[in-house]
Write a structure and sequence with these properties.
The chain has two domains: 2-56 and 292-317, no CATH class; 61-125 and 182-288, Bacterial polysaccharide co-polymerase-like, CATH 3.30.1890. By secondary structure, it is an alpha+beta fold. It starts with a helix and ends with a helix. The protein has a four-stranded antiparallel sheet with strand order 6-7-1-8. Strands 2-3 form a two-stranded antiparallel sheet. Strands 4-5 form a two-stranded antiparallel sheet. The radius of gyration is 34 Å and the shape is elongated. The protein contains ten helices and eight strands.
C-alpha cells in the first residue's frame, strides 16, 4: 500500500514537472509573439543593412596557375657519385656530402613565402601602391582608383596618417602581411602539383602577379643553384691541388663535371623549378564577396538578436 502511494506521488510530481515545462514553453512563445513587431523591425533593419553592406563590397578577382615540379635529373649524377665514392674520398680527408637533402619543390615554396623574396618582389615590380592603396577598379577602362587618404597618385607620395613607429609609406613588414593575405601557394601531395593564386580588385593585376611570381621563383632558384655549383667547383679544385691519389683525383674530376652540368642545365632552362601546366588567365568572374550569403547571414543574425532582445526585455521586467 505504501509503495503504491509513493508511486502515485512520483507520477504526480513528474506530470506536474511536465506541466510546468509546457507552461514555460507556451509562455516563451507567447512572449515572442507579443513582441513580434520588435523582432520584425530588428530583423528588417539587419536585412537592409546586410544588403547595403554586400552591395558596397568591391569585387575580388582570383587568378590561378597550375605548376608541375621540374625534373631534377641534373642533381642525380652528383648524388650518385657522392654516394658511390664518398667513402673513398673520406680516406683523403674530403667530405663530399650526399644524403637526402631538402626537396627542391618544397624549398621553392618556402622561398616564395619568405619575407626576403616578398620584399624583393614588391620592390622589383614596384607594386607597393597596387598592394596597399587601391580602393576600386574601373571595368570600362581597366584603371585603378587609389584611396586619396592613403596615396597621392599624382605626386606619387604616401599621405596616410599613422602613429609611430609606422610611417606614411608602408614598410616592407606591413607589405609582407598584406601580400601574404592575397597570395596563396598550395602543394597537392597526391599529385605533386603546385597551385599559385593571387586575389586582387583588378583581374589584370591578379594575373600579372601570378606570372611574375612564377618567373621570379624560377630565376631565384636558378641563381642559387648556379652560385652553389660555382662554390663547389672552387672547393673541388682546391681539393685536387691538395691530393696526389689518382683515384681521388678521378672522383673529384667527375664531381666537377657534374657541377658543370648543373650550371649548363640552369642556363638553358627558363622553367627551372616549376613547369607551367595551366597558366594564369585574366578572370572574368569574381571570386568574392558572396553577396547572397552575406544577406542571408545578416537577416538570420537580425532575427536571432531580435528574439533575444524581446525575451530579455520581458524577463528583466518580471
Amino acid at each position: 500500500m505504501t509503495r503504491q502511494i509513493q508511486k502515485n506521488y512520483t507520477e504526480a510530481q513528474f506530470q506536474q514537472s511536465m506541466t510546468d515545462d509546457e507552461i514555460d514553453l507556451r509562455e516563451l512563445f507567447s512572449v515572442v509573439w507579443q513582441g513580434k513587431w520588435a523582432v520584425i523591425a530588428i530583423t528588417t533593419v539587419f536585412a537592409i543593412s546586410s544588403v547595403i553592406f554586400a552591395i558596397l563590397q568591391p569585387n575580388i578577382y582570383k587568378s590561378e596557375a597550375l605548376l608541375a615540379p621540374a625534373s631534377e635529373e641534373q642533381a642525380g649524377g652528383l648524388g650518385a657519385l657522392a654516394g658511390q665514392f664518398g667513402g673513398l674520398a673520406s680516406m683523403a680527408g674530403i667530405n663530399l656530402g650526399g644524403g637526402a637533402g631538402v626537396d627542391n619543390t618544397q624549398m621553392a615554396i618556402e622561398v616564395i613565402k619568405s619575407r626576403q623574396f616578398t620584399s624583393q618582389f614588391i620592390e622589383k615590380h614596384n607594386i607597393l601602391a597596387n598592394l596597399m592603396a587601391v580602393e576600386k577598379w574601373n571595368l570600362h577602362d581597366n584603371s585603378l582608383v587609389y584611396d586619396p587618404e592613403v596615396y597621392d597618385e599624382v605626386n606619387d607620395t604616401w599621405v596616410r596618417e599613422v602613429k609611430a613607429p609606422y610611417k606614411p609609406k608602408p614598410s616592407m613588414q606591413e607589405a609582407y602581411k598584406e601580400f601574404k593575405d592575397v597570395v596563396s601557394i598550395n602543394l597537392v601531395k597526391d599529385t605533386g602539383m603546385v597551385t599559385i593564386s593571387v586575389e586582387h580588385l583588378s583581374p589584370t593585376i591578379a594575373q600579372q602577379w601570378v606570372t611574375w611570381l612564377i618567373e621570379d621563383i624560377n630565376q631565384v632558384m636558378k641563381e642559387r643553384d648556379v652560385a652553389e655549383a660555382n662554390r663547389s667547383r672552387e672547393f673541388l679544385n682546391k681539393q685536387i691541388a691538395q691530393t696526389n691519389v689518382a683515384d681521388i683525383r678521378t672522383v673529384l674530376y667527375k664531381l666537377i663535371e657534374e657541377q658543370a652540368k648543373t650550371i649548363m642545365f640552369a642556363e638553358v632552362r627558363d622553367e627551372y623549378v616549376f613547369k607551367t601546366v595551366d597558366p594564369a588567365l585574366i578572370p572574368e568572374e569574381k571570386s568574392k564577396p558572396m553577396r547572397a550569403l552575406l544577406c542571408v547571414l545578416g537577416t538570420l543574425a537580425g532575427g536571432i538578436l531580435g528574439t533575444m532582445f524581446v525575451l530579455m526585455r520581458r524577463f528583466s521586467r518580471n
